Amino acid sequence: MAARRSPRRRRSAGRGSRRVLRAVLLRGGLLALVAGIGWAAWLDIEVRARFEGQRWQVPAHIYARPLELYPGAAVSREAALRELRTAGYHASARLDRPASYRQRGDHLELRTRRFTFWDTQEPERTVRVRFTGGSVASMTEGGRPAALVRLEPVLIGRIHPGHQEDRVLVRLDEVPRTLVAALLAVEDRQFFEHHGVSPRGIARALLANLRAGATVQGGSTLTQQLAKSYFLSAERSLWRKLNDVAIALILEARYSKEAILEAYLNEVYLGQDGARAIHGFGLAARHYFARRLEELSLPEVALLAGLVKGPSLYNPRRHPERARERRDLVLSQMESLGMLDAALATEARSAPLGVSERPGAAGARYPGYLDLVRRQLARDYRDGDLASEGLLVFTTLDPTVQEAAQSALSGTLERIEAARSGLGGGLEGAVVVTNPQSGEVLAVVSGRDPEQSGFNRALDARRPVGSLIKPVVYLAALSDPARYTLATLIDDAPVEVPGPRGEPWRPDNYDGQAHGPVPLMEALARSYNLATVRLGLEVGVERVRDTLVRMGAGRTPDAYPSLLLGAVDLSPLEVAAVYQTIAAGGFRQPLRAIREVTDARGRPLKRYGLNVEAVSDPRATFVLTRALQEVMSTGTGQGVRGSLPPDLAVAGKTGTTDNLRDSWFAGFGGDRLAVVWVGRDDNRSARLTGASGALKAWTRLFLEIRPRPLALQPPQGIAWRATDLERGMVLDEGCAGAGLPRLPYIAEGGVRPGDCGGGTLRPASLPGIAATPAERRERRREEAR
Amino acid sequence: MRGTAAGRVARLLPVLLLAGCAAGRPAPVEDRAAGATGAGVAVLPATPDRAAAAVPPTDGDDAAAGVTILPLDAPATEGAAAAPVQGAPSVGTVEPATGGGAVNPAVVALLNRANQESSAGRHAGAAAALERAIRIEPGNAWLWHRLAQARLAEGRGGEAAALAARSNALAAADTRLQAENWLLIARVHRQRGEEVAAREAERRARELGAPAS
Q1: How far apart are CA A101 and CA A498, in angstroms?
Q2: Considering only alpha carbons, which residue of chain B is nearest residue A740?
Q3: Which residues pair with A742 in a beta bridge?
Q4: Does A74 touch chain B (CB under 8 A)?
Q5: Nearest C-alpha of chain A: how many angstroms from B143?
Q6: How far apart are CA A312 and CA A310, in angstroms?
Q7: DSSP letter assigned to residue A668
Q8: Predicted confidence (pLDDT) at residue A624 exceeds the cutoff of 70
Q9: Phi/psi at A343 (5° precision)
Q10: Residue of A187, A252, A267, A335 with catalytic role
Q11: What pLDDT, in 10s, does the model give residues A372-408?
Q12: Cβ of residue A341 closer than 8 Å to a chain B Cβ
């Protein structure tokens, strides 16, 4: 506005006459007055909009799942310690502050931090935890047994607005009074007396600086500093200063000292973390000390107050000596003003800086997982709200599992590439880990270099699934217990299917052989293509396709016969959804990465609860799972049997695609399910089968995370029978069947209680379905008639 | 933010006191920031100590205080429930029950919490506690049944029926719990006006020994 005013005056003066000049000057003066009033009014509106409107854009904060400790929890001491450190817990022999721990023999003592969860507030507690053999043996609190403690979750990310601003808002009543005192001591002693500007302050600052020969005090009041940061610009002109003074006066006229102080505490710039500006003392406490503001000690508070003058000059990580001098100066000023007694000030000055090793929060360590969280949030929230409302998002990420999945994948790929030096690198991969009981996604690895964001293979790399489809074919068959059981013989013989454009499709087995009549369980365990295609054609490709869709594939492929061998492109996450349904006994659960969302103050907004949908017969699913265990003991997955502990029962399936392009493995124990894909981004051959690639990484992961063994309870209606697999025969109930394996059957299906007839065997599939290929051919002829 | 002069002074009182201190009058001492460095810092008068404020009952406290509400239908041992017919091998090794047949104390604490929430009408809170319990003991059919009840109370019948079916799939040996689940499913059908399906579910409950309704 000043710029607009002066040319007008020059133009007027050019007309010459004194009278005119005087009139013009008068009018100019009036104009200036009006303009001045207008300017003030405009500033007032701006200030009010800034101060009373939504004052800060606070990004959504994303948390990992909280660690729950209870007797029996499968958490090792090492895993607990790792998680505590990531959560910003400090080792402390005295446990003098929240979020600290100490080790005493085989005990770990924790002083937790209070935290508001969606359902309840966890208070601060001090518990002793004893670990044995990788799990929690016992817990006590004040000498009495404690049942359960839920720790504050680890912050794993934020959803920023376009500019990388972050804040941890604090209320004035949460702010240590030492901080306010320290700020007043070095920045604005007359804060509670002046009206926005302080001539006395300026004078005293000048004097102090002259005496010290350097700038030790600034002349700007806190209010002026706040004004300056409200309308931040690099400009250092007189006009700018005038503007700041005016804003400061308006602020003081309109608002209480308390409100101004609180705004200042949340606004002031205190450093830089890469692209992220550290604004406000709440975030600064987290950034420099990995603590909440209210937990800081006196010397820590003094250090932060000292930073105001020059956040990069006094950066305690880069210039510890300078930061220390500044801190000690702040303490001395407080002492000379009588805010501190001498002993305390001396003690504080002798304290170490206490700055945490690295910035408090794990920022971009799990981009693949955060990507999934962002997509699930996008269903219910607008981008703008996520970036500005300070929402708290509680995810299901398990940091221990996530880290294990990342290192299992990268470690396995390195080893594979090292073992075949001539063939070059370029292998990529992806991992998804879930809890099959709850449908919660525990880990997402988007590629070999987990910190590289970009193409998220776990979510977006849709590749042919190959033999991973087979359990779906067999489940569709086993759901018809009158026709199919695990012992039903399937003919693994060449098969030809007319293609859509006339050219016949002639699938082949991986080993190029046809194996003749094989029991259904063996055909799946050894992943025979010919038997599977024959079975799938008998069951009907459309039924197989519908089963796949019901199980949660998330897309509806065409029902071509090639679907039976996995000619459908799915992402690892979609595969996980399908296998999840098997692992959960036929109940589909939407895969969830988010448990709940609260507002910035912890008030509940939305919960994503545990839900299930019955999509396949629990009995058929149980029988299928028995066959998937066989994959690991005698089938395509048997290669890793020696690597896994003998008591860790698991079930799974390998997948390999044409020309060894994709290497898949999907498998589960009692409480962990993991899908691994290994291949190349350019879709050239990875030269890996499911067993030689993905299964290796899967095994490494399971060895590391030690899931509970698979321990399915047979649902009602399952009967166990001794079975002669080679002949496809099942023994009647009560017959000895010495040496024969006992397999589960759906009671109302092919297995009928009857007498032994002297131990005779009966065909496994009854009634009426022929057990041998010859009989089946005859039966088909009959049906054709 | 604006207010009368008197109101403003009243609101500012604590801070004005601080100003007094800043002007050089040492005052008695209180430091909320850290116990260790406590003595000697002259600052604002104490605000009410939030740490001492009322805290909702916690999971740990319930158990520690010896309050144990065991559900009537809690499975006696998971092992027994899982034992397949005639000692035949099951799929996977049978999971040993925690602590020799007793339900994990953490699960008991969470069940107590869920019961408190339910009786206070906070069904979503009850569901949250039950989901935490299921994460600890996913094979416990009773917990799934309780979650189904909580969902039904929230007015989410479809979800409740599916959860009851999940409970049934886990409750192979517990006919009484199965009957409870069928009765719950029957209620959902009836709420939707599906009388035939409701009667069928009730028939299955009666077969399992539930009293005729």
Answers
A1: 69
A2: B88
A3: A722
A4: no
A5: 12
A6: 6
A7: E
A8: yes
A9: -60, -45
A10: A187
A11: 998 998 888 887 777 778 889 999 999 999 999 999 9
A12: yes
- Check CB contact of B98 with chain A, cutoff 8 Å: yes
Active site residue A467: yes
Q: How far apart are CA A320 and CA A353, in angstroms?
A: 8
Full-model pTM: 0.78
> Which distant-in-sequence residues (6+ apart) come within 8 Å of B183 by Cβ?
B201, B202, B205, B210, B213
Q: Cβ A177–B41 below 8 Å, yes or no?
A: yes
Active site residue A388: no
**Which residue matches tokens 């199919």?**
A484
Strand partners, A91: A101
Judge contact between A686 and A706, C-beta under 8 A. no
What is the C-alpha to C-alpha distance for residues A193 and A189, in angstroms, rounded to an integer? 9
Q: Which B positions 47-76 lie with beta carbon below 8 A of chain A?
A: 47, 51, 55-56, 58-60, 62-64
User: What integer pLDDT is reported at residue A761 of this predicted model?
Assistant: 44
Distances (CA, A) of A705 to A226, A577, A631, A641, B93: 50, 20, 21, 17, 18
Residue found by looking up tokens 């890469």 in the block = A274
Which chain B positions have a beta carbon within 8 Å of A305's beta carbon?
none
Please choose, from the candidates A158, A215, A153, A155, the residue with its C-alpha nearest in 3D space to the C-alpha of residue A187: A215
Pairing mode of beta strands A392-395, A269-273: unpaired
Task: Give the long-range contacts of residues B125-134, CB within 8 A, separation 24 or more.
Answer: B125/A119, B125/A120, B126/B150, B126/B153, B127/A607, B127/A609, B127/A610, B127/B151, B127/B154, B128/A118, B128/A119, B128/A596, B128/A607, B128/A609, B129/A119, B131/A438, B131/A609, B131/A610, B132/A68, B133/B106, B133/B107, B134/A437, B134/A438, B134/A610
Please give the radius of gyration of chain B, using alpha carbons only, rounded to the nearest integer: 27
The single-letter code of the amino acid at A700 is R
**How many C-beta neighbours within 10 Å does residue A324 have?**
19
Distance from chain centroid for Cα A723: 46
Q: Which of A141, A340, A437 sits opposite B42 (nearest CB)?
A: A340
Q: Return the residue of B nearest to A140 by Cα.
A: B64
| A668 touches B at CB < 8 Å | no
Give the C-alpha separation, A622 to B170, whole Å.
Answer: 11
Residue A305's contacts (CB-CB under 8 Å, 6 or more residues apart) are: A179, A182, A183, A185, A186, A187, A330
Report how far residue A589's alpha carbon sits from residue A132's, in angstroms, rounded to the nearest whole number.
34
- A417-455: burial string, b at 16+ Cβ within 10 Å, e else: eeeeeeeeeebbbbbbbbbbbbbbbbbbbbbbebeeeee
**Which residue of chain B has the CA closest to A295?**
B33
Of A287, A310, A298, nearest to A358 by C-alpha is: A287
Pick the closest to residue A330 from A376, A358, A298 (CA basis).
Answer: A298
The token pair that represents A290 in the structure block:
């990995």
Could you read off the pLDDT of A562-611 as tens digits, one per residue?
A: 999 999 999 999 999 999 999 999 999 999 999 999 988 888 888 899 99
**ipTM of the shown complex:** 0.80
Q: What is the pLDDT of residues A638-650, one digit of tens each?
A: 888 888 888 899 9
Q: Which CB contacts under 8 angstroms, 24+ apart, belong to B110-117?
A: B110/A148, B110/B59, B110/B136, B111/B69, B111/B71, B111/B143, B111/B146, B112/B59, B112/B62, B112/B63, B112/B67, B112/B68, B112/B69, B113/A120, B113/B57, B113/B59, B113/B62, B114/B146, B114/B150, B115/B69, B116/B57
Could A297 and B34 be called an inter-chain contact, meaning their C-beta atoms sit closer than 8 Å?
yes
DSSP output for A69-81: E-TT----HHHHH
A88: left (phi over 0), alpha (psi -120 to 50) or beta: left
The b-or-e profile of B98-131 (16+ CB within 10 A means b, else e) is beeeebbbbbbbbbbbbbbbbeeebbbbbbbbbb
Asked, as a colleague might, if the bond just before A767 is cis with ω within 30 of 0, I would say yes
